[in-house]
Design brief:
This protein is α/β, with parallel strands linked by helices. The protein folds into two domains: 1-36 and 84-124 and 170-249, Rossmann fold; 38-81 and 129-163, SIR2/SIRT2 'Small Domain'. 33% of the residues lie in helices and 17% in strands. It is built from ten helices and nine strands. It has helices at residues 10-18, 29-32, 52-55, 58-63, 65-81, 86-94, 111-114, 172-184, 203-209, 236-245, and strands spanning 21-26, 100-105, 121-122, 125-132, 138-139, 159-163, 187-191, 213-217, 230-232. It has a six-stranded parallel beta sheet, with helices on both faces. Helix 6 packs parallel to helix 10 (236-245) and helix 8 runs parallel beside helix 9. The longest helix is centred in the first third of the chain and has 17 residues, at 65-81. The chain binds ligand BV8. Ligand BV8 binds at residues 27-29, 32-33, 38-40, 56, 106-108, 124, 163-169, 192-194, 196-199, 218-220, 222, 235-237.
Length: 249
């Protein structure tokens, strides 16, 4: 359906027709319309009195592993119940429209993959994967002893979600490919991110320094807004399908 409030400037339509390498960076806002609370939304219910930044850290896990494990278990259950929204599907369709297309996400919900996107660069890991805190190796199954968090079947260490916490380094391969793509692209879309978390937030700046056209899709302004060439202020689930209509098939 055509959303009257979203108009794509002619200069951007022109850019979409000529772009040869498009990079998209997504944040929690792209999953908002699926019903996944964004990272900085007020935590709801049970978690109302916790700030995500205080739970998504190794020290929080060391201090209270059960609490942190249960927060992620709750988020995993939430994500399992929701479905990708038109924003995810538009990005899956967009890949085939350009000579080169790189999808980079800060999200850990796996919804891009569930919408059919391939080769997604996950900068911050994936909440559906679990790893051993001691060995830093993914664990796919473990005996249900009722322990919270469960113990590693190999070394007995605590299991944790395979996500990147604050003060933890990003997977080397992921950030390297994300930086290379950002520096090589000619069109960079920043979608649904508050652009406050580094090094992910440096990607649009790297693209801009390398001469790419920067587009921001977000209902709210962010620190990137003044540096973007085009700002489409609206929900990703509405704006991206309209944008896709302007990309030659
Ligand atoms: C690192 C996984 C090296 C876990 C996450 C001071 C200055 C600069 C940097 C730092 C600093 N102090 C510390 C740092 C480094 C730190 C950092 O950047 N901190 C910030 C808070 C200042 N970064 C790190 O620690 C990174 N590691 O630097 O390693 C190192 C090594 C050793 C010691 C030091 C450094 C690791 C960062 C990764 C952390 N893990 N997630 C989990 O999910 O539980 S980050 C977390 O925030 C999520 O991944 C999330 O994706 C990410 C960013 O948030 P957003 O995605 O942008 O979501 P947010 O809610 O913020 O915003 C949503 C947006 O959507 C809003 O703008 C809203 O308007 C918009 N929106 C809403 N609805 C819609 C919408 N948009 C479109 N459509 C809609 N419908």
């Amino acid at each position: 359906m055509h959303h009257p409030c979203v108009t794509i400037p002619a200069a951007l339509v022109e850019k979409l027709a000529t772009a040869r390498h498009v990079v998209v960076l997504t944040g929690a806002g792209v999953s908002a319309e699926s019903g996944v609370p964004t990272f900085r939304d007020a935590q709801t219910g049970l978690w109302a009195n916790f700030k995500p930044e205080d739970l998504a850290t190794p020290s929080a896990f060391r201090r209270d592993p059960k609490l942190v494990w249960e927060w992620y278990a709750w988020r995993r259950e939430t994500v399992a119940k929701v479905a990708p929204n038109p924003a995810h599907h538009a990005l899956t369709a967009m890949r085939g429209r350009f000579r080169q297309f790189t999808l980079i996400t800060q999200n850990v919900d796996g919804l891009h993959q569930r919408a059919g996107s391939e080769d997604v660069i996950e900068l911050h890991g994936n909440i559906t994967r679990t790893k051993c805190f001691q060995e830093d190796i993914v664990v796919t199954e473990w005996p249900d002893t009722g322990d919270l968090p469960p113990k590693c079947p190999r070394c007995g260490g605590l299991l944790r979600p395979d996500v990147v916490w604050f003060e933890e380094s990003l997977p080397e391969g992921a950030i390297a490919s994300a930086l290379a793509a950002s520096r090589a692209c000619d069109l960079f879309l920043s979608v649904g991110t508050s652009t406050v978390v580094y090094p992910a937030a440096s990607l649009p700046l790297e693209a801009r320094d390398a001469g790419a056209t920067i587009v921001e899709i977000n209902p709210q302004p962010t620190p990137l807004t003044p540096k973007a060439d085009f700002v489409l202020s609206g929900p990703a689930g509405v704006v991206l399908p309209v944008l896709l209509k302007h990309v030659p098939a």
